[in-house]
Write a structure and sequence with these properties.
Blueprint (H helix, E strand, L loop, with lengths): L10 H18 L3 H7 L4 H9 L18 H14 L1 H21 L2 H12 L5 E4 L15 E5 L2 E12 L6 E7 L9 E7 L5 E6 L10 E12 L3 E2 L5 H37 L1 E2 L2 E2 L4 H34 L4 H26 L1 H4 L5 H10 L7 H13 L3
Parallel strand pairs: 1-4
Antiparallel strand pairs: 2-3, 3-7, 4-5, 5-8, 6-7, 9-10
Helix pairs in contact: 1-4, 4-5, 4-7, 4-8, 5-6, 5-7, 7-8, 7-9, 7-11, 8-9, 9-11, 9-12
The chain binds acetoacetyl-coenzyme A.
């Protein structure tokens, strides 16, 4: 059983949360709808987030980060996602999917070279695991890294790479020994301008439209041996360890989206009148409000609890897979539930692009899919609880 999630926020936590809230309100809220519509990558606001330290909250200051803890990361990300999930996705990938693995498994030189520009917000990082024919079953990837003296030659295609069209650096997982399945996977750090790294077309998406996603193709892409992250064959464990951290980010994103949709629905239910009274006074709407609020608070506790478990695991080098998967599963399904109800409470206005409610609804869906579907989270949780497979 995990510890009780009671953890008072420090003054530093509160300051960071308030800074993120102010920034999101002043800088992101006015442009979120426009960037959602155009699908353009929000370079300027992302740069400003980097200057505030949001792109490397847990990275030590010596590697360009803010040197804060896992809860600080969640608190700041939640505020950004309350306003715009696209900015949240970019922030989450830089912090966790990209930087976390290098900080945990990288050499001193790798941390300096590959984390510093990303954690300080001067560059964008990406994580490439999924392939056209291997998503949930990540151990069946087909891309190959072949040793050639002091180099590796990378070949293959990676799908659904968040920030793929714009990233300066990539963490890439490829087979070095296909016969060994998961134990034949290795991880590599690749600079975006390496010859042979080709960015595929940008994916047109339902939600998080300002976050750019693409395929990334490797065609005889030659990288030095010192760019291997961890040992040969350690890549799958690195990928999974990093996903545990990433899943807390997605739980936080889902929490932020749900909170935004809830707040709008709560206010609308108190103002909009039908049959002579505010619609929130009807039990049919009031009970929706009750369920939305309760599920959001449960999501928050699971998510903060996972962040605290992650922080504790730094000292013990332990795992927090259970906490991370439970938080992601519950928070993402809550985001879908809450945004669905928020559209319903708003009626026609919930369906209109005049309000951000329909954007919250579209943005929520991806949280049940990426960084492990809800089905994969249930698989991780049930395997850990039963030891059965
Ligand atoms: N931490 C450390 N090690 C782990 C681990 C974890 N969380 N999970 C598994 N491992 C280890 C296991 O202990 C095992 O090692 P041993 O044999 O030494 O014990 C090894 O990894 C293999 O584990 P499994 O046998 O459990 O592997 P599996 O093939 O059955 O897969 C899985 C497990 C949970 C289904 C995994 O494949 C998985 O998480 N799939 C989902 C992948 C995913 O989330 N993809 C989305 C990527 S995000 C993206 O691509 C887009 C983007 O930019 C956001």
């Amino acid at each position: 059983m995990t510890d009780l999630p009671i953890h008072p926020l420090s003054e530093e936590h509160k300051m960071l949360r308030d800074t993120a809230r102010d920034f999101a309100q002043k800088e992101i809220a006015p442009i979120a709808a426009e960037f959602d519509e155009s699908g353009e990558f929000p370079h300027s606001t992302i740069k400003k987030m980097g200057e505030l330290g949001f792109m490397g909250i847990e990275a030590p200051e010596e590697y360009g980060g803010a040197g804060m803890d896992a809860l600080a990361y969640v608190l700041a990300l939640e505020e950004i996602c309350k306003v715009d999930a696209s900015h949240g996705t970019i922030m989450s990938v830089n912090n966790s999917l990209y930087s976390h693995g290098i900080l945990k498994f990288g050499t001193e030189e790798q941390k300096k070279k590959f984390v510093t520009p990303v954690a300080s917000g001067k560059a964008i990082g990406a994580y490439s695991l999924t392939e056209p024919q291997s998503g949930s079953d990540a151990g069946t990837m087909k891309s190959r890294a072949t040793r050639d003296g002091d180099f590796y030659i990378l070949n293959g295609s990676k799908s659904w790479v968040t920030s793929g069209p714009v990233a300066n650096y990539f963490v890439v997982f490829m087979m070095t020994d296909p016969g060994k399945k998961q134990k034949g996977v290795s991880a590599f750090l690749v600079e975006g301008n390496t010859p042979g790294l080709v960015r595929g077309k940008k994916e047109p998406k339902l939600g998080i439209r300002a976050s750019a996603t693409s395929e990334v193709i490797f065609e005889n892409c030659r990288i030095p041996i010192e760019n291997r992250l961890g040992g040969e064959g350690e890549g799958f464990k690195i990928a999974m360890t990093v996903l545990d951290a990433g899943r807390i980010g997605i739980a936080t994103q889902a929490l932020g989206i749900a909170e935004a949709a809830y707040e709008a629905a709560r206010q609308y239910a108190g103002q909009r009148e039908a049959f002579g009274q505010p619609i929130g006074a009807f039990q049919g709407i009031g009970f929706k409000i009750a369920d939305m609020k309760t599920r959001i608070e449960a999501s928050r506790l699971l998510t903060y609890n996972a962040a605290i478990a992650k922080e504790k695991a730094k000292a013990t080098n332990g795992r927090y897979s259970l906490e991370a998967s439970m938080a992601k599963l519950f928070a993402s399904e809550t985001a879908m539930f809450v945004t669905h109800q928020a559209v319903q409470i708003h009626g026609g206005m919930g369906y209109s692009k005049e309000l951000p409610i329909e954007r919250y609804f579209r943005d929520a869906k991806i949280t049940e899919i990426y960084e492990g579907t809800s089905e994969i989270q249930r698989l991780v949780i049930s395997r850990m609880e039963t030891n059965l497979r």
